[in-house]
Amino acid sequence: MNEGTIAILFQWSLLCLVWMGSYDTLLREVRIQRRNMLAVLAAFLVCSFVSWKLYFAPVHVSLSGTILPLLVSVVLYTRLGKERRRLYLLGAMATAILLVWLRWLFFTDPILLFWDERIIVPVIAVIATFAMCRQSAAQLFQLIFALTATDILHTFYFWKLSGACVLGTDFAQDFLWSGIMLLGVVVLIWSVIRRVFRNKEPESSHSDAGR
Question: Are 153 and 101 in contact (CB under 8 A)?
């Protein structure tokens, strides 16, 4: 599959899920209205299709791959509790360093790539995110910031080897949106499970009272 295709497919999928109201609980926690979230996803989708870039020679910065994710991270950061913001930021930075090391390991020893790198890295990112925080808003912030920072650090580290410095490439966007989609699926499944168990609790309590 061509680079960037995964990102566009996941953007379309999330756009449909948000429009259907599947993530209303998460949006309430983040304090973002559904129409605003739809506008953000539409902006990502348009920028991904057009592939707009800003040029700061010799550095090229993608709007959809770097600028927009960083802006979203800043907004999410402001919505987090003040007492734990720094901890979540440190967790995101630690996750980014872990992912950069992992990608360097795959580069130096390709035999370790038992699966597509665009799947392995996002899965590790999501696992690290769930291990560090439980709040959905904090998880989303940490994942987006960590994956974006990973691309920035990785690009600058391999600048001399690659001969180009392009932040937010189509390949990097596949990393980002694979992680976001995986996190979204896990959060959605978990919310359904909680809703099912919450609906069963009153029935069990009434049956116990009748006995």
Answer: no
State the helix-helix crossing angle for 85-108 and 136-157, rounded to 10 degrees.
Answer: 40
- The sign of the torsion formed by the CA atoms of 10, 13, 18, 24 equals negative
Q: Fill in the amino acid letter for 107.
A: F
Distance from C-alpha of 156 to C-alpha of 41, rounded to nearest angstrom:
27
Task: State the alpha helices, DSSP H only, in 51-169.
Answer: 68-79, 85-108, 117-132, 136-157, 159-162
Tell me the per-residue pLDDT of 53-104, one tens digit each, with 9 for 90 and over: 888 778 888 888 899 999 999 988 988 888 888 899 999 999 999 999 998 8
Residue 31: CA atoms inside 13 Å, Cβ hemisphere, count? 8
Q: Tell me the C-alpha distance between 117 and 13, whole Å.
A: 21
Please give the Cα distance from 165 to 87 (Å, whole number).
30
H-run or E-run covering 56: strand 53-56
The 10 Å Cβ neighbour count of residue 116 is 12
Please name the amino acid found at residue 129: T
- Judging by beta carbons within 10 Å of its beta carbon (0-12, 13-18, 19+), is residue 34 exposed, middle or buried? middle
Give 204's pLDDT tier (boundaries 50, 70, 90).
Answer: very low
